[in-house]
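Archive entry. Fields below.
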Amino acid sequence: MEQETIVAIATPPGRGGIGVVRISGPAARSIAEPMLHLRAPMEAGRARFGDLLDEDGSKLDEVVTTYFAAPHSYTSDDVVEIAAHGSPVVLEMILRRAIDAGARLARPGEFTERAFLSGRLDLTQAEAVRDLIEAQTLHQARVAAQQLGGALAERVRPVKDALVKLIAALEAGIDFAEDDVDVMPQQAILDTLKEVRAPLAELAASYARGHLVREGVTMAIVGRPNAGKSSLFNRLVERERAIVTAAAGTTRDLVTERVSLGGIPVELVDTAGIRESSDEAESIGIRKTREAMADADLVLLVLDATQTINDEERAWMEELRQREAVVVWNKIDVAATAGEGIEVSALTGEGIGDLRDLLLAKLKTGAVTSETAMLTNLRQQQAVQQAIDGLDAAITAAGAGIPHEMVLLDIYGALRGLDELTGATTADDVLNLIFSSFCIGK
Ligand code: GDP
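PREDICTED_STRUCTURE:
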C-alpha cells in the first residue's frame, strides 16, 4: 500500500507575518501544484515564488513554496512547504484543498514520527525535537540541540558495539565448545562487562541533571508579612510582577513566574505571609503557602533583618533544616546585623548576585553547561537502567562461573535496554504516547 500523504498547518494558530502548511508523502507535489501558480517549476531544495489560486483560479495570496525530494527531507518522504501570509483563513483554505485532493490531516507529531520510522532520527533525537520546541531557556534549547544532533546515541554506540562483539565471541564459544575452541576466559568477560558498565552508569547519573534542565524546579518564597518576599521575588524575576505594598499581609494569593537561573527554568512562587491569621482571605493564603512549600523543590525563607525573629520564624527555620532551603536576611540596607544565612537588600539589589549563585549551587547545576549528552526524560533513564541491570546480572553470573548460555541471556537483556533507548525495539503504544505529545505540524 502506498503511504498516505499528510498535511498540517506547521505554524502556531493565530495571525502572523507568515504561516506555513506542510505536506508530506508521495502525493505532496501533485496535491500542491494545482492550487499554485509558480513562476518556475518546483525543484528539490529550491524555494519558488508564486501565487496561491482561489477555487475559481483567481489569485488569493502570494506564497513561497519549498520542495524537498525524498529521501532528503524532514520525514524522508516528498515534502512541500507552502509559506503564505499568516492568515488563518488562507492557511485553512490550503489545508482543506489539500485534504480534498487526497491528503489526510496529520496527527500531532506525525511528521517527526515518519522521520523516526524511516530511520532518519532515532527516538532520542525525535524526543529532542519536541524538547527543542518546548525549551524555555537557551540552555534547555542547547541540550535539546545536542541530543537532536545524536549526542546521546553517539555515547551509547561504543557500548553497543562492545556488547555485540562480546555476544559474538560467547556464541562462538558455545557453538564450538565440543571442538575445543578457546573459550573466552572468565576474567576477560568480566573485564569487558565492567568496562561497558562505567559509561552507562555515568549516563544514568546524568538523569538528575538532565531532568532538572528539562523540567525545571519549583522554588517557594516564604516569610512573615512585610519581610520583603514580593520585593525579593521581583528582584529575582527582574520585573514588577508581584504587588509590593507597605501594609502587612497584602500578598494573599500565590504569584508564580518562570525565571531562568543559570539555564535552569525555575518556577518561582511568591506566597502570602506564613503568619496565622483570623482573617479568612489570609487564612486561605496561609494554607496555600503551606501547599506551595510542600510542592517546592527549594524554599527561600525571607527574614526581616530589621526585626527580631519570632517563635513562628524559629519554628520554620527548624522545619526547613530537614529540606533544601535558603535563609535570606532582607533589608540589610537599613539593618546593621543579621543572623545565619545570606544577607540581601531587595530594595537596593545588594547581595542578590550572591543569592543567585547560592541558589544555583543548591540546584547542583555546576556540571550541566559543559555536558554534551544527558538523559532528559524518565523513558530514557529507564532504558539505560534496564541495560545496567542486565550488565549487573551478567557480571554476577559470569563471576559465579555460570555457563555462558545464561550469561548471554543477561547480556541480550542489556542490549535490549540500549535498543529501547534509541527506539529500535520500542513498543507501538509507547511510540504513540511519545509522538502524541508533539504539536500538530511537527
Ligand atoms: P512581603 O509582604 O513579604 O511580600 O513584603 P513586600 O515585598 O511587600 O515588602 C514590604 C515592605 O518592605 C515594602 O514597603 C518594601 O518596600 C519594603 N522592603 C522590601 N525589601 C526591602 C529592603 O531590602 N530594604 C528596605 N529598606 N525595605 C524593603
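CURATOR_NOTE: The mean pLDDT is 86.
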